[in-house]
Amino acid sequence: NEHIAVGGGGRAPEWVAVQRVSPSFFSVLGIEPVLGRAFLPEEEELGRPPQVTILSHDIWVRLFGSDPDIIGRQISLNAGSATVVGVLPERFALPPISLNAGLLSPDAGIYAPLPNPAFKGFARTVRSDFLTLARIAPGHSARGGTKRP
What we know:
The protein has about 150 residues and is of the alpha+beta class. Helices cover about 10% and strands about 25% of the residues. The protein has three helices and seven strands. It has a six-stranded mixed beta barrel.
């Protein structure tokens, strides 16, 4: 799991777990940020400035004092910075699957766009193991996506 130093809100930087996700990650899980927005498709382009991030509710409360004006603010992440575009709901938790494989970080406080493999330079900069999540439509089962009897 990846961790970065997050600073801002007048506090000393704190090590926080990072989860990299596709722009559709939150919509697939049916999650809408309580402040701001989810990632846009163009934000997954590798090296695309400005860098953006979504905060967990816990990090928003603990490091930024529940500041409702956090959206659009630059926060320090390691030696760089990112613009906060969203804050997740308090009830949000990552799905409890494949946690032992290290693909999901259940304690993630910062979410960043996962660079799309279609963009130049991807293979040299990002891990090559991925976890795919999907939501099953009502009336269908996980087994082959067939309709329930």
